[in-house]
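REQUEST ID: PR-0412
SUBMITTED BY: lab tech R.K.
PRIORITY: routine
TASK: structure prediction, single protein chain
INPUT:
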Amino acid sequence: MEALHTRSRPLIGDPASQHHSAVSQWEYLKKMVKITHEKGGQLPAEDVNSLLLEFLSGLRHPDFSSMRGSDGKSSRSIDSRMKTSDDELEFQRLLLTAVGNLFSRAGNSVQKETWIAVVKMLRSMLESVVSARLTEDAASSRFYAAVLRCAHLVLSDSKGLVDEHIPGLVGAFRAFFTYGLSNSSLVNRGGQVTDR
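STATUS: complete
OUTPUT:
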């Protein structure tokens, strides 16, 4: 919790923090993930809501189109990975993990307005992610798992109606039902994975 009280201004998503190195932003974010996991339930409500808004300001919709070839499949290979894209996905994954940690440990402290902002961001992010074909690689899979876990934790701690978001969320969630099954293997009726 002392990291919360020693920071003079947020590092995540703050244009004024551009002079901070990327390394310090990564270290700050990793610390925040640890703090929100271990001590999120002990944070004052004001800190919980300000942290959530800070994390939201840093969340971006990853551009998966830049990671695809002309055939719509992932353009990444083992020898030529797009490191900046993997780093971007990992940074976003850590932000989503911190948001999920706060909801799972301090959900009662989250204000309704903050909850609504998080739900809108998650819906928008999920719709953006599934608007193109889902990328099947390790970095993307970890990112998708973080988005879905965060959505589960946020929606489980309902602070308002989600009626207007249901169609968009259901459509986005549906895309994940077959994720990973279409690329290199098929599942037969007995649940066994077989090569094509």
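NOTES: The chain has a mean pLDDT of 76.
REVIEWED BY: pending
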